[in-house]
Amino acid sequence: MSQATDDSLVISSDPLHPANLIPELCRSFYNLGWVTGTGGGICIRTGDKVFIAPSGVQKERIEPSHIFVLPFPQPEPSPHTDRVFLRRPALNLKESACTPLFWNSFDLRDAGSCIHTHSQHAVMATLLWTGPVFTISHQEMIKGVRVAGTGHALSYLDTLVLPIIENTPNEEDLKDSMAEAMTKYPDAAGVLVRRHGVYVWGTDWEKAKTQTECLDYLFEIGVKMKLAGLPTVLN
Ligand SMILES: CSCCC(=O)C(=O)COP(=O)(O)O
Ligand SMILES: [Zn+2]
C-alpha cells in the first residue's frame, strides 16, 4: 500500500466532489445544531471509495485537505494490517470515531452516505420514548423517509419505527448494537442512540440528508406532542 498521500483524491474544482461536499454539508449541519462541539458528521461513499472527516475537530471548519479516503470494501484484516487508507491528511488527524458505524450502513444497507447528528430533537426523543423504539404515525413528513433508508418511500398511512440503542462511553463500541438493531428492524431508516443522537443513511448524500431532515422534524414534533399530552401513534 502507498503512503496514502494522494491529494488528487480530495482536491477538485467540482463543488459536488465528496471532499468539497463534506465541509459544506457540515457547515449547514452545524447551523442546524446537528454537529456542534465536534460531534456528529457525514460520510460519503462513491462506489469503491469512502470519504470521511477527521475526529474531534470543529466540524464547521473542515477543509477538503482534512478528508480521509478509504477503499470500499476494506481488505481482509490480518494481524498486521489496521484500517487501510487511500489518502490521509498531512496534518496529525485521526478518522472519525463514527467510521465503524458508517461502515454498518455500507455493509448492511449498501448505503452511499450516512449522517450522524447530535440533534437535541433526537436526544429528547430517546428520553421520552424510554423503550427500544421511537414510533410516530399520521405525519406528512413520514413520506420523506424510505423503507430501510434505501427502499421505496413510506406512505402517510405507515407508522414510522426507529430502534433506540443504549449509548456507550466510546462511539466505536456502538458498532455491534447498531448492527443488531439494523438486523432486528430491517425496515428502519436509521438508529437512535439514547442520550447521544442518531445515525441515518441513504443511497446517496442527497437522500441521506433529506431523510435526516424529515426524521429530525418527526423527532421534534413527536417530542412536542408527547409533552403536550397528545398521542403520537393513531390507529
Ligand atoms: C462531543 S463529541 C463526542 C464524540 C461523538 O459523539 C462523536 O460523534 C465524535 O465524532 P468524531 O467524528 O469527532 O470522531
Ligand atoms: Zn456522536
What does this structure look like?
Helix content is 29%, strand content 17%. With 235 residues, it is an alpha+beta fold. It has an eight-stranded mixed sheet with strand order 3-2-1-4-8-7-6-5, sandwiched between helices. Helix 3 crosses helix 5. The chain is globular, with a radius of gyration of 18 Å. The chain binds the ligand CSCCC(=O)C(=O)COP(=O)(O)O and zinc ion. Zinc ion is lined by residues 39-40, 116, 118, 171, 196-197. Its main location: cytoplasm. Pfam families: Aldolase_II.
From the structure above, extract its key features:
8 strands, L-fuculose-1-phosphate Aldolase, alpha+beta, 17% strand, Methylthioribulose-1-phosphate dehydratase, Aldolase_II/adducin_N, zinc ion binding, Aldolase_II/adducin_N_sf, binds zinc ion, 235 residues
User: CATH homologous superfamily name?
Assistant: Class II aldolase/adducin N-terminal domain
SS-based class: alpha+beta
Enumerate the spans where pLDDT stays under 50 for 5 or more consecutive residues.
none
Determine the number of helices (DSSP H or I, runs of at least 4 residues). Answer: 5
Strand/helix succession = HEEEHEHEEHEEH
Any idea of the CATH class? Alpha Beta
How large is the radius of gyration?
18 Å
CATH topology: L-fuculose-1-phosphate Aldolase
Report how far apart the termini are. Answer: 57 Å
- Tell me about the largest β-sheet: 8 strands, mixed
Mean pLDDT: 97
Are any ligands bound, and if so which? the ligand CSCCC(=O)C(=O)COP(=O)(O)O, zinc ion
Overall morphology? globular
CATH architecture call:
3-Layer(aba) Sandwich
Subcellular location: Cytoplasm
Function: Catalyzes the dehydration of methylthioribulose-1-phosphate (MTRu-1-P) into 2,3-diketo-5-methylthiopentyl-1-phosphate (DK-MTP-1-P).
Pfam families: Aldolase_II
Pathway: Amino-acid biosynthesis; L-methionine biosynthesis via salvage pathway; L-methionine from S-methyl-5-thio-alpha-D-ribose 1-phosphate: step 2/6
